[in-house]
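Hey all, sorry for the wall of text incoming. These are the two entities for the joint prediction.
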Amino acid sequence: MSSTEHRTEPDTAPRPTDPPEQHIAYHPSAREYIRVGLLLIALTCIEVALSYSSLAGTKLVVALFTCTVIKFVLVVGYFMHLKFDNGRFSRVFALGAIGAFTLYAVVLLTFRVWSG
Amino acid sequence: MSDIHAPIEYTSTGLRSTKLAMWLFLASECLLFGGLITAYVLYRGQSTTGPYPQDVFDIGYTSVSSFVLLASSLTMVLSHNAALARDYARMRLWLLATAMLGMCFVGGQVFEFTSFFREGLTLHTNLFGSTFFVLTGFHGVHVTVGILMLLILIAFSFRGSLSDDPAFPVEMVGLYWHFVDIVWIVIFTVVYLIPAPPPHGAV
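and here's what came out:
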């Protein structure tokens, strides 16, 4: 075979021709952000009020965690733009967040933290 | 040259590698803080000597700190909005406001730690002290790093180093900042608001 005859496999790999997504397609306005911020503050007020209320035990924990999860989702969805951004970012973050939650929930269950 | 000047990378995923790396980093941080929170929950009520959480916590004071951190997240997104509009003056103003609110939060945490120390709670006093200081201390360090990143961003904007695409670095620092905020949202509920069980061995 001469040195000029190079047989190579056809290059079928996708060409990265499209420019990457520089920014999200939709971006909330300042007014929307302020609305979300006020909602977060209201939820925190509810949490603090709950901690001073007569609620106790499982009911209190469930009520507090409900507020916490709503706040978490609001910040991640709106302030971190995951609601409007490429789904792959959501999947990467969900992998870490849900993975961590599952792992440590198993640890806490193993040690019977809630048995008392 | 800093990465801020780097040309937009073309990737096979169509996503910016820097942003994907940031999300991967934040996902790994979930495991770090998850471990620290789990350690705190595991040892709740296991301390054999005081001071106990109910002896030292001031929910009203910590609530104000939480409001400050939530407000800083709002100012951070407003700075990103301004960066998208290439309104540099407003972007710097909101970035500075975010850094100032972050400093208020860290200052409040230092005051809280000092008051706990005066009441006899240190890292070595009991299981509560060890797990509490490690968890909230790690969070405080993250907030401090975030403040430094914000100040560097402001300095870069004054130098004109963000001229190519100012919204992108602001967005990256913002992602980190909001993550620190969501970690505090969880810490505030788990550590401060859920009442601690009675001390170990108490009737």
